[in-house]
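Regression test attached.
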Amino acid sequence: MKNILLKTAVAGLLTLGFASCADELNIKSIDPQTSPTYDANALFAKMYGTLSLTGQKGPTGSGDVSMTEDKSGFYRATFNLEELPTDEVNWAWQTDPGIPQITGISWNSTTEMNQWAYNRLGWNINLYNFYLKETAGTEDADIKVRRAEVRFLRVLNYYYYLDLYHKAPFKDESVSMESLPVEKIGKDLYNWLDTELTSLEADLDPIGQNSTTKASTNYGRADKGAAYMLHARLAINSTVYTDGAIEDYEKAQSYCDKVIAGPYKLNETVKTNSVNGLKYSGYAQLFMADNDENSDAMQEIILPIRQDGLHTKSNTGSNMLVNSMRKAGMPYVGVSNCWSCIYSRPELVEKFFPKDDIPMSTVAADDKATEAEVIALDAQDGSDTKSIIKVANDDRALFYAGRGGGVRKLRADKLNNFLDGISIVKWQNIRTDGAITHDKEFPDTDIPLFRLAEAYLTRAEAKWRLGKDGLSDINAIRKRSGADPISELTKQALVDEWSREFYTEGRRRSDLIRFGMFTGNAYNWSWKGGIAKGQSVDSHYNYYPIPEDDINNNPNMHQNKDY
Amino acid sequence: MMKQVKFKLPLRNLAIAASLFLSATAFAQSGAVKGQVKDATGEPIIGATITANGKAVGVTDFDGNYSINVPKGTEITITYVGMSPKKVTASDNLVITLKDDNKTLNEVVVIGYGTAKKNDLTGSVTAFKPDQLSKGITNNATDMMVGKIAGVDVVTSGGTPGAGAQIRVRGGSSLNASNDPLLVIDGLTIDNNTAKGMSNVLAMINPNDIESVTVLKDASATAIYGSRASNGVIIITTKKGRNGQKPSVSYNGDVTVSTIAKKYNPLNATDYRSLCERLGLDTSQLGNANTDWQDQIFRTAVSTNHSVSVQGGLKHMPYRVSVGYNVSNGTVKTSWMNRFNTSFNVAPSFLDDHLNFNITGKYMMEKDRYADASGAIGSALSIDPTRPVYVDSSDPTYSSFGGYYQPSQSAPSSFNSEWKYTNNPNAPQNPLALLELQHTIAHANDVSGNAEVDYKIHGFEDLHIHGSLGAQYTDTQQTDNIDNHSYSNNYYGWYGVTRYWKYNVVGNVYAQYQHKFGMNNIDVMGGAEQSHYHRNGYNQGQGTDPYTGVAYNPAIRSETSWATHNSLVSYFGRLNYTLMDRYMLTATFRADGSSRFADNNKWGYFPSAAFAWRINHEKFLKDVNWLNELKLRLGWGITGQQDITGDFLYTPLYTQGNSYAMVQFGQGANSFIYTTRPSSYNPNLKWEQTTTLNAGIDFSALNGRLTWSLDGYYRKTKDLINSVVIPVGTNFGDVMTENIGSLKNYGLEFAINAKPIVTKDFTWDVSYNISWNHNEITSLTGSKSGDNNYYVTTGETISRGSGTTIMANRVGEAASSFFVYQQVYDKDGKPIEGMYVDRNGDGKINASDRYFYKKPAPDVIMGFTTKFLYKNWDLSAAFHASLGNYVYYNYLSDNGSISASGIYSNSAFRNTFPEAVKLGFTGLGTEYWLSDYFVRNASYLKCSNITLGYTFPALLKFAGKELMSGRIFFTVQNPFIITKYKGLDPEVSSGVDKNPYPRPRSFQIGLSLNF
């Protein structure tokens, strides 16, 4: 009896333990939202999602990175660093962290907005490396094209590193995921990008195939046109990026030649919205909610970041662009959530109104005024967008200085109110065809990351830098917007035209640096250096600092000079 | 020593208190039989009870004398706590000597996988029984532990009805992994994750059912729990019936009135108006009211608690059944909790006590209404005080807010044209509307049970086999119904349901062999255990267009459902060896396999060894009669921690994107593609491992009138698990869970219990404990070699900045130290905004000038309880204190923007308070909130409670039996705090003082009855 019981007990103990450890300790995840394997199409879609989204839940909730999800998205993080310190725009909420430092050019290595961009680019690149490693050695023609696109996206993200930091924490798919990136600086990084672009261009879809045809099932994916345009953008900045070692203006021109020779067209077709009765110029249509369905607008767009109010929701892309520039009470607002953040600095308005004679309302609309009443009052004041365009004689003057939301100032002696500048209405969530948009809060408006006008203006500048005549290229884009042609191509004309054509498109800082006007005393715009009349800032602000965390974590990275 | 006997003293007091009453009648009678009661040392015993025929007839006085009115020859029994009862035949002038029953020392203490006699313990173990006289207001098991146990820091989590507490045993041993101790309730280890919709992981247990709480502190005691034991183990045992006990019924009930102890002091309307004027703001936009918004959200709340239990023994089957009902109303309006608990226990024995069962079961049902207290308090402090609470909703600008005042703006065109206005999202919200327009109701059900069987082998009784199988199942449902006139969900409203289920199953078997071979006493135990923990849930809901009925932003179940699980497989063993009743050796070993790690890291091994020396049993002390115990303990052991933030962090997983995060290629309905994302993973993740050394002395003398114990410990944790910022581009995330370094804790604990005065009518009892802990990070592996500046940011975010944390970990500093700039002050001692000390002297103020300054964890914690017993009255007070704990004064830093744009921006006013106005920071252009000026010393002394009680004997006589004895008491909870800290309450577990639900000041009247 005793023995039987003992034996049973011991056997019981042993079986309980051993039988279970095999099963119990090797249990797998049972979470329905995750899987140990991936779907190839979903993973590829995520590659483009790095530009348009911030995580796996729209608009927020499962962020790719742990930082503030809204603000650390690719487009918003780079936009902040390229636009907010410049002569184009300001951010009203000066109590937001980092905003005074960014808008006044006094940032340092712990400024969070700087870290958001740096970390997001690195996160994206790591994901591209993963994709390229997973698909290495493929013979499948479709996957070869996809690989070239992912390599293009990787170049694009490294390009931003080069532009913002003058260096990158660099690695490609040939090393392990855990290995520390190495520092690739200036000319080295430039050369790698140049070579890599040249190499990947061959595998991409033909120029214009993905974007100019409305029937394309690949609209939103990069083709050769996007790579050429990025190559031109890289080359026109060559002197800055390589500290003067390389001058690739010929290359810039030749890539622009390829783009302009492609199937793209500047949009000059005016369309009337049947619901609100407004006429929208070809230029205005590029930034509207149906810019991915309006074939005239699509012909100019080389590569968009796709956005959709229903299925592609984030707080980082056109949602930021449209909402941040609007205040409740403005007419034709198009969205339900106005952030009232971004407004123009006077220098932007002066690109269209050099004499500061933009028509403005001087009385606010009554709090209880309806949209129709505000529209009528604005028309009476001549301060609505339509009137401003007319006075500016330029379709690109998409400003609002009417009564809605309060009375605006052209320039202000303080810096904390959305009404301290003229409102910008270039980005909008309204369709040319008058149909309703997919969502009230999140715009459908795609962001044209590359568009044909850039090729004309880059070529004009390249020619000017090479001592050739670029006047016809600059006038081509002026003509499209109804502006009078200019007769002489000067540095100032170029610098101003870049702003007129591309304001709030996330590139102003690079343009100013290329003309030596960002730091130093050459051009002191309002609030540059943190004071109302503007002041010189030190040249080390031409590059952003490497965030303190990465200096802390990655021994290969060294801080930029004077930070 | 004191630890082990501490709980005994209250019982003794009770006995004295109860018997003193009886003595009053006894003395009055004549013709009495007299005698004296002494202990073994010849000292008179005061308060010994004399019973005759089952009825108390008297107690001994100050000199140990008694005088009882019974006929000579009657059999009387003399009892005294801690002594063996003695039966004698009554005759005059008897001198009765009671012997120490050694029960106190031989009291059985529940330890891991078995029990031990207190006297035989070699580790640092505190067994603690709820103190009936000074327990304070006890709605949860944790409430009764505050300040009572040396080395155990219990911080209740605020005033949310039913909320739990943060428990830290000897400081935290982890950084990012859980620092919560392992909880074992009636033999069942509990899943520490609190289900959403349930207020407290310990809610399943009615505090009135608790028999004892055992805290295992050092590794020699905890290592038997292996991978989950690094932060100590708390074993809770509920009350049971006794063999052959007559059925007895007891009732406990109380009524509590709670009020807030302290309010913040935002500017009133007049002061706010003048501030706005001073800042040049347009004050015509202010209102005409003068509203104290805090008065709108706080209330005086009445709560009540009732429980009834029946216990007894049907021959060989003791049983106990209890039911409890608790209605707790919070001091923040709308918040309440109702809870019903029931439990049963049966412990039948068969085969001549060879086969014993112990079956316990518990069921809890809870219903809560949660209030967003933190949001409401934040709004009450920042909303414009010149505005009224309610407005005339016929005013169209307020028409969208259900009659509440709320700054408005015109509605977006997407709303129906009748809905003309919506809230200005930049303005603070009406805090009362926040509470009243948001209905968050939670239901929770929790059922748990454990069945234990123990079989003593027939004919080989030294060996017994013990098996147990237990399970817990919880399901909760929380509904959020947010009105469409609310601030957060204006126009669309929100109706959503969150479900949460969890269960765990634990089974174990062990065999134990005990035998005495001459001077050698051996006790060997070995066994195995397997546990499985499972959790899942989902949420579902939508906003709805009030005009069209179309869903807005629905949360879809298929995209929100989640599930996870983990398992442990364990083998364990223990050897106790005692030589000559003096030298004791304990060795334990546990091997744990966890599903949370990759194959090569699954198994962890956790040994321990301890030695104890009963010095008072040595010859040279044997004759010292006043000394009851003098014991030296030495222990060593290794424990682990595997309660990390996820169950599958070691393996690559791909997260599916939802239908709002799709990527579009081309046009049309099929052009949207779901995405997938690899998540960061760390295949090298492994256990945290803590090595502990402990040395202690237990002392007890004068029949337990004085006991103390002293413990010193040193703990080193390696392979610390933490979520760290990783080098950019090295994994699928910018942070990852890693084993990043090591830290050490060392400290001292001292606890003493004494009865300085014991007289016939008056007893004074004090207990005091103090512990000092030093915590220091000793290595962080992520740093570059020789880089002393490497740090890892951590902790709760502060209100200013964007996701800004104020704490960091660095080698040489305490875990989660504040990482700040050093403030520069002007000649008047006023801080200069944004001006910091250039600590590294490089002429620039940048991140490398930040330094480590103080930490949230206290250096010293103390607990003090004093009790006076006078006849039937008892008066007690309990205090706890914390020294050297610092808090980030978030309220001041959050309100520190005293400038036109700080007070008024985007058409919205924001209130502040006098201290911030006096400070005068503008909030423009600087990260002023990173200053050490906001890190404040939050040391405190708190009075936990003061209780006055009256114990009464039987109220009724029925058929010669006295029925219904009991006690009535009055308690004040949280009557005062002594601190220099200016915030509401210095007791902040996270170190960042962010509008917590304030701990109430409460007044309770309670009644206990026994039938």
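Expected vs. actual: identical. The longest strand of chain A covers residues 301-305.
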